[in-house]
């Protein structure tokens, strides 16, 4: 079990279609902390490349990850933990995102056929299903991560994640019976 102290970065990672955004939003809601989606930090050039089926290079990714890390640090400076949904496929990428933070990595890892189905059904996203093979090839299994089968129901995934983290008292929202409220 990983002890949580403030502030903490909960990095929900995995390839496209694994459920990062859905799980990350729900986890942030349950933990009463902000949610960041790494997709929101992509510049237009990166979005255009991916929309045209062109995988990003490290040269494309580094400034994007640095922007994300700066936003995480802003939340930390305000004393806030944060949930970040980000592919973070390589160890070097996770190192940039987690640098100088208390980081808990949550790896959503559904089977490839589930990923392919989800991507085929997804509409309105700049990441095409044709890049799944490239992402799977790039993926480096994270060390010291909470590995979750991404094909579980959302409530099961959240229970599994929370069973691996032990929040400190100051991480808990005040209860309605708390006399200080």
Automatic annotation (TrEMBL):
<dbReference type="GO" id="GO:0005737">
    <property type="term" value="C:cytoplasm"/>
</dbReference>
<keyword id="KW-0067">ATP-binding</keyword>
<protein>
    <recommendedName>
        <fullName>Gluconokinase</fullName>
        <ecNumber>2.7.1.12</ecNumber>
    </recommendedName>
</protein>
<dbReference type="InterPro" id="IPR006001">
    <property type="entry name" value="Therm_gnt_kin"/>
</dbReference>
<keyword id="KW-0547">Nucleotide-binding</keyword>
<keyword id="KW-0808">Transferase</keyword>
<dbReference type="InterPro" id="IPR027417">
    <property type="entry name" value="P-loop_NTPase"/>
</dbReference>
<comment type="similarity">
    <text>Belongs to the gluconokinase GntK/GntV family.</text>
</comment>
<comment type="pathway">
    <text>Carbohydrate acid metabolism.</text>
</comment>
<dbReference type="GO" id="GO:0019521">
    <property type="term" value="P:D-gluconate metabolic process"/>
</dbReference>
<keyword id="KW-0418">Kinase</keyword>
<dbReference type="GO" id="GO:0005524">
    <property type="term" value="F:ATP binding"/>
</dbReference>
<dbReference type="Pfam" id="PF13671">
    <property type="entry name" value="AAA_33"/>
</dbReference>
<dbReference type="GO" id="GO:0046316">
    <property type="term" value="F:gluconokinase activity"/>
</dbReference>
<keyword id="KW-0311">Gluconate utilization</keyword>
């Amino acid at each position: 079990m990983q002890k949580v102290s403030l502030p903490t970065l909960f990095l929900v990672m995995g390839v496209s279609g694994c459920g990062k955004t859905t799980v990350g939003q729900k986890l942030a809601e349950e933990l009463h902390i902000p949610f960041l989606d790494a997709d929101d930090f992509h510049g237009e050039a990166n979005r255009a490349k991916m929309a045209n089926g062109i995988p990003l290079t490290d040269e494309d990714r580094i400034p994007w990850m640095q922007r994300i890390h700066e936003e995480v640090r802003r939340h930390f400076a305000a004393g806030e933990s944060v949930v970040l949904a980000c592919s973070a496929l390589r160890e070097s990428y996770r190192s940039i995102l987690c640098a100088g933070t208390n980081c808990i990595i949550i790896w959503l890892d559904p089977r490839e056929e589930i990923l392919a189905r989800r991507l085929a059904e997804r509409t309105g996203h700049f990441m095409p299903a044709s890049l799944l093979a490239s992402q799977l090839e790039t993926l480096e299994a994270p060390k010291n991560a909470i590995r979750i089968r991404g094909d579980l129901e959302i409530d099961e995934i959240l229970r599994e994640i929370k069973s691996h983290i032990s929040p400190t008292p100051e991480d808990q929202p005040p209860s309605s019976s708390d006399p200080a409220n």
